[in-house]
Amino acid sequence: MTQKTFLDEEKLVDAVDTLKRTMERLSKLLVKAAKVVKRIRTETTADVAEALLMVQAGITPEDARLFKAIGELIEDNPDLLERGVSAETFRVLFSASDPDRAEAIRAIKAGLPVGEAKMKHLETHRRWIETGAAQTALAARSAAIESLAARNVRALLGELESQATDLRKAVADFANYFGPGAPQQGFEMETQRAGYFETHAEITAKAASVLHLFQRVLGLVDTPETFEPMNSNALALAQSRHALERLSSGCFGHSGGFAFDVAADDVFSWEIIDALDYICTQSPPETEPSCLLSRPPRNLRVLELGAGAGGQALGLMSAGFEHVALYERVRKRANTLKANWPTWPVRCADLRTVPDAELARHHGVDLLAGGISSNMLSRQSNKDKRGNEDDLVPELIRAVRVVQPRAFMIESARGFSFESHVSYLAEFKANLIDLGYTVESYRLDMKLYGLPRNDERIVLVGIRQDEPGTFLPPVLRNPIDRYVRETLEDLVIRHETPADLKHSIQRDTPQWHYNNWAYRWRSRTLESRIATISREWKESRGARQKDSRAEITEGFDRSEFAVTPPRVEDFQKENDYFLPRMTQEIAARAQGFPDRWAFKAIGGGNIDMIADAMPPVLAKAVGLQIYSALAGVTFDLDAALVPPIVNEKQIGTGSLRLNGGRESAHTWTQIEILLRGEADIAKEPNAKKRQAKFRSLLKEVEPNHMRRTNLVKTLHRIQWEQERRATEDHALIDRPVSRRNPGRRGRFSRASV
After folding, report:
1. CA atoms of 389 and 395, how far apart (whole Å)
2. What's the pTM?
């Protein structure tokens, strides 16, 4: 061994000793942190303490409980500090049972390192001792037999799926071939066609065989009435069994139709046929789960409380959510919602007066969205604001408890992060967690999403604990940087002389001064952003004018708001550093609203409405991530946030909005192709071939199978509307001539017809 080797070994030993001393200090720091957590927990309830630690320090509830356990372990075993116990060892001790923990502590005191593997060995050893060798052998035998039985069940389940798939195809072919081709031909099965009763008997026998195999593999499944509302898998299984019983009894087709209700005798319904899908062989979806989508494949339902000016509603609609109701207390804001998007089901009502029974109508909705007014969350407001008319926190907790949505989203201004309100946020979050949700609080930085703002919004997102998905923050790969000049220039500078005519403007005239000011304003705002948009009526001029340097950086005079942008006559003399005041249009665009969005607070209150609103692009980003957690799809946020939030031509029109107002031109094109194709397909006399041709055409028009259902629903809505109008036209044509004017007969009167 050389001298150099000795030197290297000495360095290694010194490094290990340094690590040992570091571990000892780290162990003491963990104990110190445990004491701090204990002090916080003594000041309030455990749930609120955990929520406060999460909001303010980023410490998870699991970490908080670990610190609590560390404190208790050190109190009972102070010798552990001398051993330099690591955080991982503390975690393993925390998770272990009392007997295993006691044995592990004895091992640590004896100088033996204890990790997760060692703890498992200790646990196995204890159970082996407690159970005994004979009992352990019996348990091993039972496990082996159960494993073999499970393999057999898997094989039988595969056979069940295969036979059910064959049965489903046979029943579907039977319904297509022997079913009525058109309403004009009647509504009964075509039993006179050759082979009808033979095919019926074959399906009955095949269904009896599948039912026997079903009961052999799964036993007797309860009726749907006995299941919990959210137990969708058990309900689907019971419906499959019900369908098998119907088919094996022969009560289908001419003697019962294909609906679950035998009395309905509905041959056009496919209820019992579709019920077999759950036990058929399941093929993977055409769109791989890892595929990134740029738009939602279908709509989910959302109930919105405290809808305000519609910023959150616009974003959620664009994210694939369809509103079942929007509640808003302030009449002016409710009018704004109705005027801009007339098809929204808006109700002007104070949430505190809405009874539980009314909210319960939306029980189990996909998303409950709400907003809290920034008026109660300003830096100046205090605890006295809690419980007043602007405080929706208690009502939102009540709504979540009554509605029990799959997920909720509650947004507010960044005031919730102020020291005067952070404990209230923690209490709010703790109450929501107690209702059975995994709750995350997240700060959304507006400047990362294409807004010219240096401001944040706070959002609380809760996913019900029985949901398989989880919420992931909406992080863009490439943040969208936009500044005041790029975004707001055309709203601020309205009267500048075109570049090719500037040489003709006389020096020292108002127009000349205006042009110079416009040039300098552009230069100053090239990379500037706006901070908070102040409320017009709730803050004093002094509160809005605190930092004059910030105003210069932003490029606006924040002391008050203006009706119009700067005019030429305002520049009678040189005023290159003039700061324009914000107008309502400037504030709305800076907040992310479409230009055509009209605010209906006549007499004042529009600025407050805009300041309170969540920017639509932020709502869309969060909404897409919630959609992902609920539907199991993944979005390319960078691509999804590029298109406009909504087609501005549809704002305020009240016309039919396909696809929730998103990209309707593409949908209209698809519908037009399907309508023309159906006209040709209708010439085919065979019903089965007509259906096959339509499915082929639908696949060509919409390659994404997840979007076809909504497309077909829209097609049916339009066809129904066309039929309704045609019926009304015929009724008008066939209307008898009025007796008051019997001599006046149009060419479409009953006589002429």
Report:
1. 11
2. 0.64
